[in-house]
Amino acid sequence: MRSGNDSGDSGAADERGPGAARIDRWLFGVRLFKSRSLAAQAVNGGKVHVNGARVRPSHSVRPGDLVTFNRGAVDFACHVAAIPERRGPAKAASVCYTETDASRERREQHAQRMHLAAAMTPRPEERPDKHQRRELRRLRGRD
User: pLDDT tier at 118 (50, 70, 90 boundaries)?
Assistant: First the structure.
């Protein structure tokens, strides 16, 4: 008969943290998505891939897995480094994954293009008044 303390290697897993986690919980825990429901929606929508395969929110990820998804207009790719026990501070969350070099380069190039596009956008001399703001909202389809 086994006692409660002789449960195999569960003690070793407790010291190092969990060995696997659901993909939606991991994405939320490492602060790549603002909420777990947004992470689950992205996974259900086929936007998140683990090791190149489309997965479901209940799919488990382990350290060493490659997770890719679309972050805004740029593809984001990272390797799972650790599984967090809970959603903690951003500094602790950033240790749980390592972004690939290609992903980092794409993100920096996109930021540079956006900065250049913002610098080239014409700016009016003065702020629009109430009627001009309404017209701008109507033209942009936000009304």
Answer: confident
Mean pLDDT of 21-37: 95
All structural domains of the chain, each given as residue ranges with its CATH number in brackets, are 10-123 (3.10.290.10)
Who wins on pLDDT, 29 or 72? 29
53-54/48-50 β-pairing: antiparallel
